[in-house]
Write a structure and sequence with these properties.
The chain is 34% helix and 29% strand. The chain is an alpha/beta fold. Strands 7-6-5-8-9-10-11 form a 7-stranded mixed β-sheet. Strands 2-3-1-4 form a 4-stranded antiparallel β-sheet. A hairpin with a 2-residue loop joins strand 12 and strand 13. Helix 1 packs antiparallel against helix 2 and helix 3 crosses helix 8.
Length: 284
């Protein structure tokens, strides 16, 4: 059984859904999932569709070529087609915080994540024992103000050598430059607390504690050159009270970060995210 996922966005016009589904039927395919959304303000149509083909001679590349000439060109679509046979490759960037790394590797080891992790990169050696315990290659690439360009060159070499599809900054405490961002547009996922821009700096939970906040949260988004302002993929919040200590706030925040990051990665790796005008459409 050959299974593909199609992502489409274009100007909203009559007949798009019928044209796509009829085309799949003509190719002896069966639609097993379809969801769509129309942005009324922009008049943009979005659709995610999954279909199966039983023909043993089915070719994804041949299907793409036919889809382009028969459907996509007619509606002036922006589109992508993915085969379920190919799992996306994810590179993990970490520093010293280990909570997100442990969580993701645990989920990966149990088969919960539909992806491959060829390696982990870090600007410190602290988390190497974790990578070793999960038998994933670990590369220590130190980053200083004077060596940042050289470090990024080494990172890019690894990413290209392993045909990495997307990158996850699992509490990687370095600002990613425009060179890497432009190489992987909407393919670098970050996680951070949701206090921004109210509580900036190295100790946001301490600042939040002093203000007596009642809600804390976490945000996962794609990285853009504007710091922490990329398209949002996933968010969550938790209520806290005056009884919480700073340590309890931090622990609760880390729990949220783990869940939010894992859900963002699932949405991305399962081809459920579409980005348009610095916003996201997340399909179920």
């Amino acid at each position: 059984m050959n299974k593909i996922t199609i992502l489409i966005h274009c100007k909203d016009l009559p007949g798009i859904i019928a044209s796509v589904t009829n085309f799949i039927t003509e190719k002896q395919g069966n639609v097993i999932y379809l969801d769509q959304h129309v942005d009324r303000e922009q008049n943009i149509f979005f659709m995610r569709l999954e279909s199966e083909f039983q023909d043993v001679n089915f070719s994804t590349e041949t299907f793409k070529a036919c889809f382009k000439s028969n459907i996509a060109d007619e509606f002036n679509m922006k589109w992508r087609i993915y085969s379920s046979e190919k799992k996306p490759k994810m590179a993990l960037f970490v520093s010293k915080y280990d909570h997100c790394l442990y969580d993701l590797l645990g989920r990966y080891n149990s088969g919960e994540l539909n992806l491959e992790i060829p390696f982990i990169i870090s600007n410190h050696n602290d988390l190497k024992p974790i990578a070793d315990s999960f038998k994933i290659p670990f590369y220590h690439i130190p980053v200083t103000k004077d060596t940042k360009a050289q470090a990024e060159t080494k990172q890019l070499e690894l990413l290209e050598a392993h045909n990495i599809d997307f990158i996850v900054l699992a509490r990687y405490m370095q600002i990613v430059s425009g060179t890497l961002i432009n190489k992987y547009p909407n393919k670098i996922i970050n996680i951070h607390h949701s206090f921004l821009p109210a509580f900036v700096g190295a100790k946001p939970y301490h600042s939040a504690y002093k203000r007596g906040v009642k809600i804390i949260g976490a945000t996962s988004h794609y990285v853009t050159e504007e710091l922490d302002a990329g398209p949002i993929i996933e968010q969550d919040v938790a209520h806290v009270s005056h009884t919480y200590t700073i340590d309890a706030l931090i622990a609760k925040g880390r729990d949220l970060e783990k869940i939010v990051l894992a859900n963002a990665i699932k949405s991305h790796s399962n081809r459920k995210v579409m980005v348009y005008n610095n916003k996201t459409v997340i399909f179920s």
